[in-house]
């Protein structure tokens, strides 16, 4: 054996094998060389490293343990070791198969098997435990230990919240009985307190995904952290409370802290409070805390004391000579520093001087005064809003000068007699040194030094004024430098009214006394006015009951004596001067001037006979009720009452049985009330009772009827007490209520014709004269009653009735009232044309009778500018149906003399060139904010009730004069024109059709049926849907006439269908019809019977429309029975089949230009893109095909085409009466694309056989199909499927 082969055998690597307890396995040892047993030795050995151990398992073919067996076949290169019931203690280790050469002992073959008997590890245990107590910055170890496990487990440390493994020192156990340890070394910080660490244990013996875990939580004791606040630096305003807070974060916690300032201990509380801080409290404060871990925490807090500016001026006064330069310094201290320092002067708001030093050069007397140094800083104390603080100080600058002009306040004193007054004298300039003030009175002529001095003081006091104090008072100021100018005022003394003759307090007169007069007299200053009152209400001349005569008399010192007489005379009195009972009352003469008032009163009593005051001469009560018959009178002297019943002259008296009770009451107004109370009323008590009233002057009898309760009597004297623009308040005199207090009132009203004097413009007369129905308003018991929700300036009729539980009264008298106008409209537009001096006014529709007031601006370029009325337009010719226009030449309209033109009008137009030029320039530059012409509208019968102004625009008016035709008239004319145009169009169509019939022989030879048709593709895309058919199936002769028209139009190259867009539109144009509209009546072109659309030129909103080429419109014809059979037969099935087939034909969407034979007119057709089945409409593919279909190309339209036409197509005259024959329907292709069940059939196609109808059929662009018709026309519809006169169905889309 060579050395190379030995080396290759020895180069086998270790094989790792995992197994479990009690398993069986084979450790293979294979070799390719043949090692004879006689020449080589064979060995199996097992070794373990912990503890170190080496055992022979087998030698040769002999196993050394009963758990092993050998497969020993060296001749085949096999020396396998078989292990049964594997156990960890016996088999876990490294197995080696070795072959040695005998003699030399050289190894010729080696194989190694690392056999691992898998054993899971035990759950891990963490030291020092699940809670690990640590100290900040002191290293500590966390050890995770897991016993056993084969192979040795892996132990990994994690910090909870992260998946990154932490580096740890691992010590493997080596055997399943020894622990494997992983030690994690950490240095805890404060942030680690509460952190959780986890160790994860796993080996291969554990199932996939399974692992063992243990967790420990750090409990870190950390040093104290100190935070001071609430903010640093802490800014506190002086005299407020400062709270220095010390927040400590420590573990374990600290019970207290230590506050120090400048090294001195001041407090141990967490919050150190300083009340009313001062500037001396500002500085650094230190808070320290120690929790015993060997390291204390501390923090400095700066306390900043804020205070407003303190302004100090060295002297409060500064004296200077005139012409001297003055410097005054202002010292300011503040925290924070002031943002501004400025000087102000009292009484001089415009004086400002910035800086801390005030400098005044060349001072004069007017510089004297008080100067204020003002400093401002901005403070924001902790917890406070940002605020501005001000400090100031004042210095008086005294400039030596003599006093100036003196002034006395008040300058026009007025004092009432008995009141005090103080006059004050001052001078400007005041003078320095301080002057002396001297007072004088009534100086006549020049002032002299020997004039008597009243007082020497700035103030002169009169404690109690009297008339003798009235007069002139003078004062002036004097100092060592001179005398100032004198001031003079006039003191007036006023006296309140003082009675000279008062009224007698009580006075009695008899009725019919004549010429009774009372007199008052009083004096006062100024002259008092006088009023006469009766019972507190002023006596007015309009009453025609009194005359007042007043005589003023001017006395000395402005005193006025006023005598006034009240005479009881007037037109309303009997005889013009007799007293009446109503004169009784309290009369007062009231004097008043600006000082005070004075009055004197008299109680006048009039002796008169009794006067009845009760309202009704009847009362109503029901049987068994207690009736009260009331007699109410006014009389003086006191009257006596007697009651009588019926014709019995004996007076009634209070009966012993209590049937009658009589009581009498009175009040302070000589009103007496006697009540006859009748208990348990019977029928016998009904009747007339007489109230007999007697006093010394007369005797009266008042009959009062007692009756049963009944309906109310009608109200009377209905009247309007207040009228507004939308309401009327009514009042009335209620009638007797029938004895029922629950009586309500109802007002009925309606709109009526307006009285002629209030009539509006004629246009509105119809509306105003249209009476409306009565409307009822429930007033309940309210008198007066308000009726609202009315129209403005409208006449209404009103009447009122009463209602109680018994019945209703008749209506009262009827009155008519017109509501007021709420708001006057303003003109829509006002224009002024300067060249013609024409003013144009446009007014909207209104029923009010208005006038226009034109105003212009005078002196617009001066402070005296004012508006002036220059014209009033009376006849505006207003209308209630629409706007109106009024023009008027205004001769008085003015324009200003100024360059550049404008709207201001300043001088009268007199016709000269210069004035006309100014007027023409009005259309130039205009001041929009200064109109010079304006117009307002006012009521004709009340020129004060006007609307807002409208400013005139310069230039010609642009609103045309309103049409004289009313709107209804205009609509009637338009409709008439439409009907006439429709009739003319139908007549023209009829005549042309008849003319074509006369030429049908010649036309048949020249007519090519398909000359005006497009290709089948275009036809499929653009063919109009079939027309509406009436359900009756009767012939429509009007449709036949429309066919004649269609054929004649084809001759003129204007085929209605072949050349039109899908809506019967000409391409690019509007709807074909009268004046651009479509006349489609009854479904046919030009037909009569309804269902068409009339287009009229000139009617807004009704215009022609064009349609995109690929759009259809569903006309709704699918919802009817479209039969052209007399008996409603099979044609309906054909129609339905047509719809189905159309869905196959409407697929194409390309436009095709087709060349027709014989130079016939062919036009490119726009596409539709319409799905007949989806839209419920018809398609464009023919549904009738009883004849052979031909496919024609441009080269094949010669004789064959002509012969086909002559043999199968009827002439045009055969179809002239058929309204549908002129509409070309394309045929389906037979040979290439469509296998139609209708090809070459003679009978009616099966409408349900649809399996051959393909939706994607599209004909080639150049194919030209002919349309085959039957040879004859019967003039009626057939009921047989094979009828040769079947109609081709079409629709006109409008």
UniProtKB/TrEMBL annotation:
Query: Could you tell me the keywords of this UniProt record?
Result: Disulfide bond, Glycoprotein, Immunoglobulin domain, Membrane, Transmembrane, Transmembrane helix
According to its record, what are the GO cellular component terms?
Answer: cell-cell junction; plasma membrane
Topology versus the membrane: Single-pass type I membrane protein
Membrane-crossing residues? 970-991
Q: Which GO terms describe its biological process?
A: cell-cell adhesion
The family database entries (PROSITE patterns) matched by this protein are listed as:
FN3, IG_LIKE
Q: Which InterPro entries match?
A: CD80_C2-set, Cell_adhesion_signaling, FN3_dom, FN3_sf, Ig-like_dom, Ig-like_dom_sf, Ig-like_fold, Ig_sub
Matching CDD domains: FN3, Ig
Q: What is the lineage of its organism?
A: Eukaryota, Metazoa, Ecdysozoa, Arthropoda, Hexapoda
Asked if the keyword Translocase belongs to this entry, the reply reads: no
Q: What is this protein called?
A: Ed
A Pfam family that this protein carries is: fn3
Q: Which residues form the Ig-like domain?
A: 2-113, 123-216, 224-304, 309-391, 403-490, 497-607, 610-707
User: Does the record bear Membrane in its keywords?
Assistant: yes
* Residue ranges annotated for the Fibronectin type-III domain, each copy included: 714-822
